[in-house]
Every structure is written in C-alpha cells, then in structure tokens.
C-alpha cells in the first residue's frame, strides 16, 4: 500500500460472520467519501446485496462502523466519535437505512489498530466476539459471554486480552522482536447486553461505562448477527498531512473558545454556543462533589462524569433524567435520593445495554395507560409491573429489566412503542400525541417539532430523530436566560445575523432564522434545513465533529460572539485540511454532505420510501402542544415591521399542505424528484453517483 | 380565574376540608408540567396533588420547575379546589416585575405556607 | 489506577551492570598494561634446532591469539548488537547487556594482544619491516598462490622472508583497520565517561562499523588462506606450536633462511639432516 | 630506519628520544597505569560529574484530567508528526469502570534528580541536555534502542517509550526537540501538553518536586472556578 499522509489508517476490515472469516479492503478506493456516514453509506451500497430489506435484523443486512480521518487526532471534539450505519430497526413504518454514533475511545483505537471501518455482514453460526489487535483479527466463541451484561462482558474481555506486563506497565502487542509495540491503554470494546441478544429494538451498544449507541437499533442487529462484541487495541500512528498546523489550530481554539475552568466567573448555565460550554455533567444532579469531568478522545471539554460513589460513571444527558422526577415524587422531594436513584438507574441501563431515549417519552404514556385502565394485570396491555410504585428504585430496576430481558411489557413493545400501540389497538394514543413519537416512530427529542421546526423537518426528511443540536443552542441559551431574568447576551437580530453569516451561501438573508409562524415554510427556512442536513451528513457524521460541540454558530466566549464553525482559523475545514491535506472549503464539505444524502435517498428509495410516506405523526398537524414542557419556547422571530425579538412559540401546530409544499421545494432544491422523493438520474450523474442508477432502475425507482 | 376576595370571605378550614385539599387527585385532574435540570435537560412530570406542586415549585441548584404560572393558578383553583390559595397566588402571577424563577419562588413559598397550614389542620397527617 | 505488578512506584527500576560503564577504565589501563608487558618482554632471534625453527615465539603467539580471540568476540558481540544496516539481534535488555559485556571482554583481549604487539614493534622496529610489503609484493603473492595451486609457473619470485608476500600485503589493511577500530572504540568508550561531541561520536561509530565490516571480510580470507587450505596447515601449526620445519623454511621462506644463515643461526648441514629426520618422523 | 648490524642473538634496541626505548616504554606504561587507575578510583560509575538538576518539571492533577488524551496525541504529533498514543511521552491511563479519582492515572516523566535512565544508558544517548535546561533527553542519533533506560525507570508505567518504527527509545524532553511545534519548546518555552490541556491539568514548574515522595508530582491545580462549577478542590493523594 502506498502511504499517504491523510489521516486514514489505510484498511477497512470486512467481517463475514457467516463464514467467520475476514477480508482486508484498502481504504484508498473509498477515501472520496471522507469517513463516518459517507464512508459507511458507500460501503453499505457495495456490500449489502439486497437493499430492499426493511428490518435491520435480517441476515442480509450489512452494518458499517466507520471512523473519520479526524478520529484519533487532536481535532477538537472530533477525535473520539464513531459512526454506525446500516439498516436499523424499531422505526415506523419500516426500519430505514439509518445511522447512529458512539463516543469514547472506540474509533481512535480502531484507527490506531490500522482500520478505518469495519463492515459486518452475514450472521455467525453461533455467538462470537471479535478481537482485533493491530493487524490481528480473531473470532472467539462468545458462548460463555452470551447473557452477560455490557459491563461484565467488557470486563471479561479486557481480562482475557490482558497480557500482563513485562515490568514496564506497558502491554506488549504482537510483533517479532523489535517490531513489538507497546501500549498503556486498555482495549476499546463495543458490545451488547441481553437486550441486544434478544433483538429488542430498545437495546443499546455499549462501549466503556457510558458510551452508547442506541437510536437506530443497531444493538438488535448485533444480536441478530450473533455478534456479542468487537474489541480494538492499536499501537499504530495516524499520519497527519500538516501536524504543525493541526497542533497550532488546536492551541488557538483553546485560547479562543476553551472553557476557563479555573476562573470563578465561569457560569455553568449562561454560556451561549456549544464549543465553549463547561461540562454538562449529570442532569439529575450529583450525589457527591468528588467527581471529574470525563471526555471522549480529543474533546475540548468533556460532558460526562466519573464519580467516587461506585455508580453513574460516564452517565449523562437524558439517561440521568428520564426517571429522576418520578423518583422525586416517590421519595417526596428528597433531591439527594432522586439523584442517587437517577444515577443508579442510568448506570444500570448502560450496564445492561438499554436505550434510555425511548423511555424519556414512553414512561409517561405507560403511566397514563395504567391510570386509564389500559395497562395492568389482564388489561389491554398486560403487565405484572405495579405502576403505582413508579418512581421507586425497585420499580425502576424492574422496569428496565423488563426491556433488557424482553419480558412483560419489554416483550410487548420489543419492536417499538408505536408498533406496540398499534398492536394493542391504541393507535389513537399515538395519533393524538399522548405517545409523543413524532417522526418515524421514534420519540420526539423534546424540542417540539412544531416550535423548533428545523429539528422536525430534518428528522422526517432523513431517517430518524436527527439529533443535531446546531440551532438548538439558541433555544437553550434564550430560554434559560428568560427563566433567570437575565439580559440576553445576544439579541435576536444579532443572533440571526451571526447564524446566517455561517449559512452562506445556502441562505443570504437573516430571515432564515425567523421562526415566526408565517415564515416556517419559506424558502429561507427550507435552505436552512438543507444546510442543516448537509452539515449533519458531512461535518457532523462523516468528519465526525461531535454534536454537542459543533456546529458552533455563535459563541459568547469569543469577541463579537462569533462561533468557531467555518472560522478561517479554527473552523471545521481547518482541521480537516490539516489532517487530510485536501484543501477543501467549509462549503465544499456541505456539498459532500449533499452527495451523501442523495446516495442515502437512493437506498431509502430501494427500501420503499416515497414522498407520501414522509410526514410526521398526525398530532404535529392536528394539535397544538398543549401541556407545555417549557414555560416558554423562545425562538427568534421577526414581525411584519422587521423587528426581531425572542418569542414564545408554544401552542403552535404545523400545516399539512404548507409542509407538503415545503417538501416539494426541498426535493427540487436537493435534486430529488418532487413526485416521488427519489434521486433523479440527472442529479446522480451530476454528483458522480451514476453507479447507483442501474440498481435503482432494476427496482423501478429511478426518477 | 379566582377573584380577589375580602379577608372575611375566606373559607374556614376544618380537618376534613384540609384533608380534601391535600388529597391525591384523580388521574384526569393531574397536571402535566416539566422540570428543567440545568444546564440542559427537561422532563415532563405530572402533578398529582398540592403537596407535589409544593415540592416542585421552588427552584434549586438541581432543578427548576417548568410551568406556566397561569395554568398552575387555574389548576389550584379548579382541580385542587383551593380558591383561597388561588386568590393569594393571583397577584404573584400577575406581577410583571418578577422574572420567571423569582415568580416560581414566590409561588412556591405561598404554596408551602398553605400546605403547612393545611397539614396542621389535617392533624399532621397527609390526607 | 492499580498497576498489575508488585513493583512499587518510585522503586520499579532495575539496572544491569555494564562493564563499559562500571569498568570503563579497564580498557584504557589494558593499553598500558600491554605496553608494560612488552617492555618486560625480551625476545631472541630464533635459530634452527633439531630440524625446526621457532617461527613464532611465545610473545608472537600471545599477541596473535589474544588478538584473534578478541576480534572474534568483538565481531560476534558487535554483530549481535547491530551495526551499519545489520539490525540488533538481541532482545531486549538482558541480551544487550550480555553482548555489551562480551564486547568489553573482547575489547580487553584485543587491546592486550594488539598493544602488546605495538610495544614489541616499538622496541624492535625491524619487525615492522618484516611485516611490511615491498615493491613487487603483489606480483609475488599472485605467483605464489598460482604455484601452490599447482600451475607450472617458472617465473621466480623474490625469496620469501619470514612472512609471505601475501601476508605482508594483508598486513597494511589489517593493521590500519585494527588501529581504526581500536581508536574509535576507545573514543566510543570515552563517551561513557566524558562528553564526546555527537559529530565526533558519529564519525567514530561510522569508522568503527565500516572497519568492522572490512576486517570481517579480510578475516574470512585470512582464515581461509591461513588455516583452511591444506598448504597453509604447517603455518597454522607454527602459529600454535611456534615451530616450523627447516625444510619448509628452506623451501618456502628462502629469504628468511638466507638471513638466518647469514647471521649463523642456521647451518645448512645440520639442518638438512635434521630436516630429513623430521620429515621421516 | 637504518637496521643496525646484528652482533649478538639479542636484538638491538634503538634509542628513542634520548632514552632507551625499553625504559621509555616502561615509564609510559607505568604512568598510564597510574593515571587510569587514579581516574578509575576518582570517577567511579559512568559519569564524570554530579548530574545537574533539570531546570523544569511537569506536574499533574490527576483529579482534574478528563482523560481526553489530547495531550498524548499532541505530544506524539509535535515530536513525530503523527498522532499516536503509543508514541506519546505522557501516558494517560484510564479505566472507565473504576471510581474517581482512581479511574485515571497520568504518567509524566519526573526529570529525576540523578536520573536512573541517564545512568543506565550504555551509549550515553540518554543524557542531560545542557542546551535545554538540563532536561533529560535521548539523542536519537546515539540511541541503539536497548531499553536499559526503560528498565531503569523507577516509575510505572515506565516513562520512556520504545518506538518500534525507529527501534529507539524516546522520552519527554519538555518539548525541546519538536520538529512539528511552531514555537520554541523546552524548559522556558512551550510544553505542548501543558498548552493543549483543556482543563489545565498539567503544569510546568521550575521547583523540583520532592524526589523521595511518590505523591509529589500529583498536585492540586484546581482553581477557584472548579468549586464554582460544583467539584471538589480537595487534595487527592495519588502516586506517580
């Protein structure tokens, strides 16, 4: 292999589980796809023979775990992210070709071991786990690991792979004599727990204590493939095109956007922008002040915690909050107990390998069904669980166990909550919004699609909850400032200017940031949505810049509140070019995102997608958001006089016809056929995607 | 909306009445609000009783209530049925000089005082 | 984080004894010890006795075999440690330590033999002349070997002295290489004690390594021509026992024989007789 | 040189510098033996001088570290031009399942007083760099990769790394020799790990930490802001 210093490790590992052998694919051929989402989609296209499958648990499915050139480098908050693609499960109406990702150390170790991606095809004849140490790939019988939870699985694999040390405290890795290489690091293991084995769509892939990949249902795909775990340990290097540039850009981004952790004036809550925010930590508070902020490889500021109490390590985000308020009620306002129960349960979910995201929006609904007499012993949906105990520690564990071991309601809802509701004849519960699963049968992210429209639009126009917080940074900053009665650090007109400056040339007017009722179907918002999807497809999920740090569209830590995104000194493209040597512009990256998106549309078309299917759940159009999640839903709006202000967008619903028209214009702008939503032959040719035409034509899906 | 009443119009609270006001409501009368876990999380939460509202309203370092004060006022008046408390809360809800969290604190304190009184009247036991 | 070892933080180091470090002064002292030895060595010119001539006295054999042992050990250990593009062969710490210490022993033996020879030569400069090539050495060496191979060559060579033409030819590069190796070795050794500029050290290492390679090549020829081929066996014997037959002296080292006769150290009659006896024995 | 006519069986020895050659040789040899013997007595061990202390040290706060390993990747990049964990001269180890603060260990070179690694080097590649503040540094031109220095290092994991590509050992030089760093490194200059650490969990100090105290290089670097965002500023005793 000729060596090029471009951040790629050089090889792709194709695991053929059916025959338990593997193949080494040179990355060269796929370098044009960048990495992550793009690389994974291209590999899926080449290696998945039957792209019409609609459930990821089908043995024909191929999933790809893909890294980017930036993984394993010091690119701020891009060094440790890892992308998974393939046909998922748990979506409604079908399991789309979808994506997910995972943080921690997994992708960096995959690259240090010399691999850019892993293509997993077929189905193993018996449960296996795969050990990769640099170039060594070994299938192990996972019979004795089957049934173990994710923590025990990892600990057992780590101990099996532990070679002791030679008195140096460094592990020697295979190599003859002076080719022996050493590491002080532990292998990075990605595995499933019992839920994944039992192919529940609520299962999560787990790496380390708290890095999980759950949305998309890939843990069930692992289970269906009889694949318990993959472990990577590498001692290699990643060749950087311009290391000097990368190092100095990393120094610079710390100067400009780094959190001043030692400065007592640093405020945990009043930052505006993503890159410079202090650690997020647990949402349910902490049970001790003895903890650290913990970060994925290369992150500029960690968002997770490790405690001294023996549980809750690396838990974060809604994993820590989905049960907290039930506990608060149950323990009559005892906040310490609430934190304890919330963290223990979050920890347990990570241990056992369960997606907590589906719980965030479903437990309330189950509580409702219980009190409505639809859920219970011998009721419409049978359960032995006692929902009167909802909030207790014991109930929490029993509830999670039901899903982890696919029993009781865990079995009933194993294919998804929307699917379960329909099965129970309770479709109206969903259509009316009691079950707040608004796009593709997955839970609303909490940022109501009727208010934060770009989130809803992008979710329904792609394949799942888009989970991309780019514009969402505005919402939180403004909403919290409003709650606390603080002055807005950045006024509405200014934020519109700051953001739209970053969106050029997709939009040329601040109007794109106008979230007012009369503007949300406009071409400006449509172009903002396109930018959002393209950014998501390339910079976020192909280059693998972390969602919780990028895009940094505005940032109060920087003079003029200018965000780091697209910045000539510290923007995404600076790191990309320093590592790969490509010399692309920020906008070039977005164009690549477009190309990837069109290829994905080709796959969706083969899976059976048609534009008529692309609509959100009925309640999004029929009902206003009634019971507010927020006291207010503050977004920048511009009134007819051209005056900008932050406005509460509660109590809004979308209009079917106008969204339909929006879709038509969106498809046209993206080069998709407005009649069907399928890629057009012309667009495919223009984007260098001609290779997909034949297959689309065969299936009558070429527009 | 509760109308302001004169002092002498206030309802007398006996044990039974106190227990009634502190009761757990029927499911259909529960009120959906949310709690914000700073810095960045929010979860829905059903309010089942006045005492649960009491526990939720006062913001602390771990969580802020996420409510719409007018709706809380209406719920207390109509679902809980405590018109006196509602009357006490009304000027707070209407006070434009308070920011949101200050308003929550003021509401929380008033509800807390009321619950203390009701608990005393109910014989120190929850209804 | 717990280390999976019983070693204690701050005390987890182990160090080996390196003679070059610990006894760095020994090679330097060896140089002077060898000189001192040579200063106390009194050598006599050999004479023909009982049909034999003492070609290599004890001093010469001492010098040669210490040199030989030293060089072989040095080459072996140096090869194991790696030089030029030959990678290191020993793994890891212990192997390197052993080879370094072996190299040290080789160096001491080599210095002892080589410097002892230098001292002797200093005292008897004529010995240098005996070893040195003369005008026509090359031609004579070629003729000599051709004859030995049985080719009917009539052309006469200059009467062979104590050392053959080819030996005299090899003397120059061998001595020079040994000198380079010794001096550069001592420079490398000095770096264990004093600061030696990297440039000088690199030059020393470079010279040391190339000298090693060339010496190794010459050594191969030397061993073949002096020990492997049958006609060299008497020579080899003489380097072990010290003696060679007068007959051989007459036939193969005519020049030296003439010289010994001139000096009255050998008489023709006696030696003839004894030589025959010897041959018959 | 004119060979004198031989008169007896004893070889004639020419005069040398007015002195009998043999006497000269005896004198020279005796003087040499005395000199080397004297030197050996006076300079035992490897080094001529007492090793001067480094002018700078790295210290860490293991309770502050996020485990992002950015320091490791940066270290490897400024020195080798490639991103690697195995080639980093600072080693951050973490165990996700362990409890704080034992979940992270930061291994930095101590720039020891009378550094054992320097003493152990058989080829004087590992040396005190007088041009860069006496930092203990390995000269790659001299290193033969024999790993004696790694064995000699008293700390675990060993603070020196074997590089299988160059087949040499390397160690922290406080960024003195960094071809891929755009600024001056070494004592008094930039230390890349210190500069890049997002939480400032690594610091450069000039005062030598206590050498006989295994806890001395782990210090409390948490400023006032740390308690302000809800974390403890307590001192944690951690080895190494």
Key traits:
heterotetramer, B: alpha+beta, three-stranded antiparallel sheet, D: Alpha-Beta Plaits, two-stranded antiparallel sheet, 11 strands, elongated
Query: Any guess at the CATH architecture of the domain at 53-244 in chain C?
Result: Up-down Bundle
Mean pLDDT reading of chain B? 86
Give the overall shape of chain B.
globular
Distance between the termini of chain C: 81 Å
What profile does the largest beta sheet of chain B have?
3 strands, antiparallel
Strand content of chain B: 5-15%
In DSSP terms, counting alpha (H) and pi (I) runs of 4 or more, how many helices of chain C?
12
- Identify low-pLDDT runs of chain B: none
Strand order of the largest sheet of chain C: 1-2-3
The number of distinct helices of chain B, counting runs of at least 4 residues, comes to 5
Account of the protein in words:
The complex is a heterotetramer of chains A (703), B (127), C (281) and D (240). Chain A has 703 residues and is α+β, with helices and mostly antiparallel strands. Chain A has 23 helices and 21 strands. In chain A, the strands form six sheets. In chain A, strands 2-1-6-3-4-5 form a six-stranded mixed β-sheet. Chain A has a six-stranded mixed β-sheet with strand order 8-7-14-11-12-13. The longest helix of chain A is centred in the last third of the chain and has 22 residues, at 586-607. Chain A is globular. The two termini of chain A are 40 Å apart. Chain B has helices at residues 15-21, 50-57, 69-80, 83-94, 100-121, and strands at residues 31-37, 41-47, 64-66. In chain B, helix 2 packs antiparallel against helix 5 (100-121). A three-stranded antiparallel β-sheet of chain B has the order 2-1-3, with helices on one face. Chain C is mostly helical and 281 residues long. Chain C has a domain at 53-244: Transmembrane di-heme cytochromes, Chain C (Fumarate Reductase Cytochrome B subunit, Up-down Bundle). In chain C, helix 6 packs across helix 7. The radius of gyration of chain C is 23 Å and the shape is elongated. Chain C starts with 18 loop residues before the first helix and ends with a helix. Chain D is of the alpha+beta class and 240 residues long. Chain D has two domains: 1-44, no CATH class; 57-228, Alpha-Beta Plaits (2-Layer Sandwich). Chain D is elongated and about 90 Å long. Mean pLDDT of chain D is 88; it is low at 1-11. Chains in contact: A-B, A-C, A-D, C-D. At the A-D interface, helix 3, strand 10, strand 15, helix 6 and strand 16 of A face helix 2, strand 4, strand 5, helix 5 and helix 6 of D. Strand 15 (237-239) of chain A pairs antiparallel with strand 4 of chain D, so a sheet runs across the interface.
């Amino acid at each position: 292999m000729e060596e090029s210093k471009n951040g790629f490790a050089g090889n792709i590992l194709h695991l053929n589980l059916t025959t338990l052998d593997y193949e080494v694919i040179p990355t060269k051929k796929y370098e044009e796809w960048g990495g992550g989402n793009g690389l994974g989609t291209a590999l899926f296209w080449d290696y998945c023979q039957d792209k019409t499958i609609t459930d990821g648990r089908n043995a024909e499915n191929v999933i790809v775990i893909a890294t980017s050139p930036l993984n394993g480098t010091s690119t701020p908050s891009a060094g440790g992210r890892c992308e998974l693609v393939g046909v998922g499960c748990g979506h409604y109406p079908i399991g789309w070709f979808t994506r997910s990702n995972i943080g921690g150390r997994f992708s960096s170790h995959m690259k240090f071991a010399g691999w850019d991606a892993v293509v997993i095809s077929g189905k193993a004849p018996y449960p296996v786990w795969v050990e990769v140490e640099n170039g060594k790939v070994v299938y192990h019988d996972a019979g004795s690991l089957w049934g173990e939870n994710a923590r025990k699985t990892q600990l057992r694999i780590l101990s099996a792979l532990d070679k002791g040390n030679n008195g140096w405290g460094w592990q020697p890795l295979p190599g003859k004599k002076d080719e022996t290489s050493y590491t002080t690091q532990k292998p990075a293991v990605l595995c499933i727990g019992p839920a994944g084995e039992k192919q529940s769509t609520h299962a999560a892939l787990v790496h380390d204590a708290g890095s999980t990949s759950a949305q998309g249902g890939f843990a069930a795909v692992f289970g269906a493939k009889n694949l318990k775990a993959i472990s990577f340990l590498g001692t290699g290097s990643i060749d950087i095109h311009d290391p000097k540039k990368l190092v100095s850009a990393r120094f610079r981004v710390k100067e400009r956007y780094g959190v001043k952790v030692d400065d007592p004036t640093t405020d945990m809550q009043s930052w505006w922008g993503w890159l410079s925010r202090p650690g997020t930590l647990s949402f349910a508070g902490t049970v001790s002040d003895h903890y650290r902020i913990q970060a994925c490889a290369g992150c500029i500021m960690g968002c997770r915690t490790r405690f001294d109490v023996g549980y809750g390590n690396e838990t974060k985000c809604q994993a820590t909050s989905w049960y907290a308020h039930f506990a608060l009620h149950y323990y009559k306002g005892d906040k310490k107990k609430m934190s304890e129960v919330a963290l223990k349960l979050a920890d347990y979910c990570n241990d056992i390998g369960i997606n907590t995201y589906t719980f965030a929006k479903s437990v309330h609904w189950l509580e409702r069904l219980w009190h409505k007499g639809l859920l219970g012993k011998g009721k419409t949906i049978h359960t032995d669980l006692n929902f009167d105990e909802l909030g207790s520690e014991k109930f929490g564990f029993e509830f999670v166990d039901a899903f982890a071991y696919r029993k009781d309601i865990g079995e009933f809802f194993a294919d998804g909550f929307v699917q379960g509701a329909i099965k129970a004849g309770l479709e109206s519960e969903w259509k009316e919004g009691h079950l707040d699963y608004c796009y593709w049968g997955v839970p609303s992210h909490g940022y109501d699609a009727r208010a934060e429209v770009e989130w809803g639009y992008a979710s329904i126009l792609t394949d799942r909850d888009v989970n991309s917080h780019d514009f969402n940074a505005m919402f939180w900053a403004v909403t919290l400032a409003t709650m606390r009665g603080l002055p807005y650090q950045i006024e509405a007109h200014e934020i519109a200017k700051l953001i739209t400056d970053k969106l050029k040339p997709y939009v040329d007017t601040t109007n794109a940031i106008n979230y007012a009722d009369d503007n949300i179907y406009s071409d400006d918002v449509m172009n903002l949505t396109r930018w959002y999807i393209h950014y998501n497809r390339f910079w976020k999920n192909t280059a693998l810049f972390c969602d919780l740090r990028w895009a940094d569209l505005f940032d109060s830590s920087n003079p003029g509140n200018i965000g780091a995104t697209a910045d000539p000194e510290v923007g995404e493209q600076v790191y990309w070019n320093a590592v790969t040597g490509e010399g692309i512009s920020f906008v070039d990256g977005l164009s690549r995102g477009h190309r990837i998106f069109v290829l994905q549309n080709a796959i969706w078309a083969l899976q059976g997608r048609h534009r008529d299917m692309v609509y959100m759940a009925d309640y999004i159009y029929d009902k206003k958001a009634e019971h507010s999640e927020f006291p207010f839903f503050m977004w920048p709006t511009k009134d007819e006089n051209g005056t900008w202000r932050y406005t509460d967008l509660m109590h809004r619903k979308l209009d079917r016809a106008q969204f339909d028209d929006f879709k038509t214009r969106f498809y046209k702008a993206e080069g998709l056929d407005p009649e069907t939503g399928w890629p057009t032959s012309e667009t495919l040719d223009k984007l260098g995607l001609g290779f997909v035409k034949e297959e689309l034509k065969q299936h009558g899906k070429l527009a | 909306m509760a109308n302001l009443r004169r002092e002498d119009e206030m309802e007398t609270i006996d044990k039974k009445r106190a227990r009634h006001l502190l009761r757990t409501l029927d499911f259909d009368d529960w009120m959906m609000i949310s709690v914000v876990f700073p810095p960045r999380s929010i979860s829905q939460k059903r309010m089942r009783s006045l005492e649960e509202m009491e526990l939720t309203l006062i913001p602390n370092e771990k969580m802020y209530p996420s409510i719409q004060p007018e709706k809380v006022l209406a719920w207390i008046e109509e679902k809980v049925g405590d018109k006196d408390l509602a009357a006490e809360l009304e000027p707070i809800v209407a006070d434009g000089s308070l920011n949101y969290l200050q308003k929550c604190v003021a509401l929380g304190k008033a509800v807390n005082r009321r619950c203390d009184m009701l608990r005393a009247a109910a014989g120190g036991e929850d209804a | 984080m717990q280390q999976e070892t019983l070693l204690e933080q701050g005390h987890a180091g182990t160090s080996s004894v390196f003679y070059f470090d610990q006894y760095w002064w020994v090679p330097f002292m060896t140089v002077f010890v060898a000189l001192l030895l040579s200063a106390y060595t009194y050598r006599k010119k050999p004479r023909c006795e009982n049909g034999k001539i003492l070609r290599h006295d004890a001093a010469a054999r001492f010098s040669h075999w210490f040199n030989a042992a030293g060089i072989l050990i040095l080459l072996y250990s140096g090869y194991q440690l790696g030089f030029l593009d030959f990678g290191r062969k020993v793994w890891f710490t212990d192997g390197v330590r052993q080879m370094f210490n072996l190299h040290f022993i080789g160096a001491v033996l080599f210095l002892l033999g080589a410097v002892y020879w230098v001292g002797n030569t200093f005292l008897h400069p004529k010995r240098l002349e005996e070893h040195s090539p003369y005008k026509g050495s090359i031609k004579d060496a070629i003729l000599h070997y051709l004859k030995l191979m049985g080719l009917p060559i009539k052309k006469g060579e200059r009467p062979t002295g104590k050392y053959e033409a080819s030996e005299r030819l090899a003397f120059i590069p061998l001595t020079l290489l040994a000198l380079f190796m010794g001096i550069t070795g001592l420079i490398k050794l000095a770096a264990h004690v004093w600061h030696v500029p990297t440039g000088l050290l690199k030059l020393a290492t470079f010279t040391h390594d190339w000298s090693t390679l060339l010496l190794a090549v010459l050594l191969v020829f030397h061993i073949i021509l002096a020990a492997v081929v049958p006609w060299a066996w008497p020579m080899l014997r003489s380097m072990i026992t010290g003696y060679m037959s007068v007959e051989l002296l007459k036939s193969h080292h005519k020049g030296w024989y003439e010289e010994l006769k001139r000096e009255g150290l050998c008489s023709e009659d006696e030696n003839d007789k004894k030589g025959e006896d010897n041959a018959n024995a | 040189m004119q060979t004198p006519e031989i008169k007896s069986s004893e070889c004639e020895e020419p005069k040398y510098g007015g002195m009998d050659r043999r006497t000269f040789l005896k004198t020279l040899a005796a003087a040499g033996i005395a000199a080397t013997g004297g030197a050996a007595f006076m300079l035992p061990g490897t080094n001529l001088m007492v090793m001067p202390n480094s002018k700078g040290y790295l210290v860490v706060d293991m309770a502050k570290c996020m485990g992002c390993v950015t320091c490791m990747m940066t270290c490897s990049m400024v020195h080798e031009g490639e991103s690697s964990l195995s080639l980093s001269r600072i080693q951050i180890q973490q165990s996700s399942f362990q409890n704080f603060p034992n979940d992270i260990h930061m291994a930095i070179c101590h720039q020891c007083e009378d550094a054992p690694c320097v003493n152990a080097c058989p080829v004087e590649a590992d040396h005190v760099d007088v041009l860069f503040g006496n930092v203990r540094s390995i000269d790659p031109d001299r290193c033969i990769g024999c790993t004696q220095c790694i064995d000699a290092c008293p700390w675990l994991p060993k603070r020196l790394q074997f590089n299988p590509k160059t087949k040499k050992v390397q160690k922290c030089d406080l960024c003195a020799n960094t071809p891929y760093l755009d600024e001056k490194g070494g004592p008094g200059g930039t230390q890349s790990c210190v500069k890049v650490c997002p939480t400032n969990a690594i610091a450069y100090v000039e005062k030598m930490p206590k050498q006989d105290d295994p806890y001395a290089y782990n210090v409390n670097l948490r400023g006032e802001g740390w308690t302000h965002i809800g974390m403890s500023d307590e001192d944690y005793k951690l080895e190494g």
